[in-house]
Design goal:
single chain, alpha/beta, 3 domains, two-stranded antiparallel ribbon
């Protein structure tokens, strides 16, 4: 019998609690300059940081209530404890309400597992907060670190796209524990649709191809998965997504580390723009990509890299597609799809393309005369497969009319 969603959450939270207890070294107040976030669970959001800073201004810091979890090397910890005159075994016994201050060498950085926006907010208040309570963990096994990183709060408002990316990362890495933890964040309805998506390899493979472009996934809504699933246009959707993948692969010159630094705001602003054809779009994107502005892709700081990205964006002649535009375009096609599906017996499985292909002549036909404008026609010759593609397009155009 499969555990219900609440039962799974309780089970995973217990696992996380056990992992935390096994690897916890104690608490200490550490200067914010030592805290870095090499692999943040969420992208930087200025609105979240601003809201947290307002809370700090109004209510005080209370960092002991919201410690930042970090991994610390044992040698670094022992050195800091000796300099502070603290016994090695006493740190874990210190009160969380009054943790000791630890001084680290200037070049020491601690990899934090959460708390990016707490650090950003602390720097925004006046006067700035210089130290924060840090929950220190040793360099434990992968599962323990993932539990700390992923499971700090099941009430966190992760987007559907973030959850999907992490589920797929866990699945592809064979991490069953992490997969179950992330799936538990979906509602039963969304989890049901996600399971259906797993049975559609064409769609799943296409979505995996754009998984590295982090900023795209703000437009992914699990509640709209039914549009992908019920359309039965898997090949056409995959072709659309391939266009997204090819565009961003070109713009970032195939560098997945740069794709990971993309953000939702920039993607929303550049989508549906065609800078190679529109001077307005070109000027707007260039103004936001300048070294002075950096409003677009703010996490990418290298001026030469930014110049290359800008240059490649400027050559984009078609509308810039995204996951968000994909869902919008599919909604536009829904009335036509509804009529087209009526042409196929309900018992026929597979995609629309598969269903129609079985009824299409395999042998090449005589040249076709195709209407290309209101009053002009063009003669077209090709293979049976090419004629089939034309027939599918004409069918959709007819249904839309």
């Amino acid at each position: 019998m499969t555990a219900s969603n609440p039962e799974l959450v309780r089970s995973l939270e217990q696992r996380i609690a056990n992992d935390k207890a096994a690897h916890l070294r104690g608490w200490a107040r550490i200067h914010l300059s030592h805290l870095e976030f090499p692999d943040p669970i969420r992208e930087e959001d200025k609105r979240i940081a601003a809201e947290l800073s307002r809370h700090i201004d109004a209510e005080g810091c209370h960092d002991e209530k919201y410690p930042i979890a970090a991994i610390i090397d044992d040698g670094i910890l022992q050195t800091a404890l000796r300099q502070a005159g603290i016994a090695p075994d006493s740190l874990g016994k210190a009160s969380l309400s009054n943790p000791p201050k630890l001084k680290l060498s200037n070049d020491t950085k601690l990899a934090c597992l959460d708390g990016l926006h707490r650090k950003l907010a602390a720097r925004q208040v006046r006067p700035p907060v210089e130290r924060w309570t840090v929950e220190l963990y040793d360099k434990g096994e992968f599962d323990a670190r993932q539990s700390l990183r992923d499971g700090y709060s099941y009430s966190a408002n992760y987007t559907d796209g973030e959850i999907f990316r992490h589920i797929r990362e866990c699945q592809l890495a064979g991490d069953k524990v992490g997969e179950g933890r992330w799936k538990a964040r979906y509602s039963p309805t969304k989890e049901r649709d996600f399971k259906q998506l797993l049975k559609r390899p064409i769609l799943l493979s296409a979505l995996d191809s754009i998984r590295p472009v982090r900023g795209l996934w703000g437009g992914f809504h699990a509640g709209s998965l039914d549009i992908l699933l019920t359309s039965r246009c898997d090949e056409e959707i995959a072709h659309y997504i391939k266009g997204i993948e090819e565009l961003f692969n070109r713009v970032f010159d195939g560098d997945t580390s740069l794709m990971e630094l993309t953000d939702n705001f920039t993607i929303e602003e550049i989508q549906l723009r065609a800078p190679a054809l529109s001077s307005y779009d070109a000027e707007y994107i260039q103004s936001q990509m300048t070294s002075k502005s950096k409003r677009f892709f703010p996490k990418i700081g290298d001026p030469s890299v930014r110049a290359g990205i800008t240059s490649r964006l400027m050559t984009t002649e078609n509308f810039i597609p995204t996951i968000s535009t994909l869902f919008k375009d599919l909604r536009y096609l829904q009335p036509a799809l509804k009529m087209i599906r009526e042409l196929i017996p309900k018992k026929v499985d597979g995609t629309l393309r598969e269903a129609f292909s079985s009824r299409f002549p395999r042998e090449p036909e005589d040249p076709l005369e195709i209407q290309v404008s209101e009053r002009s026609y063009s003669t077209y010759s090709g293979s049976s497969g090419q004629f089939f593609d034309i027939a599918i397009r004409q069918l959709f155009l007819y249904a839309i009319r």
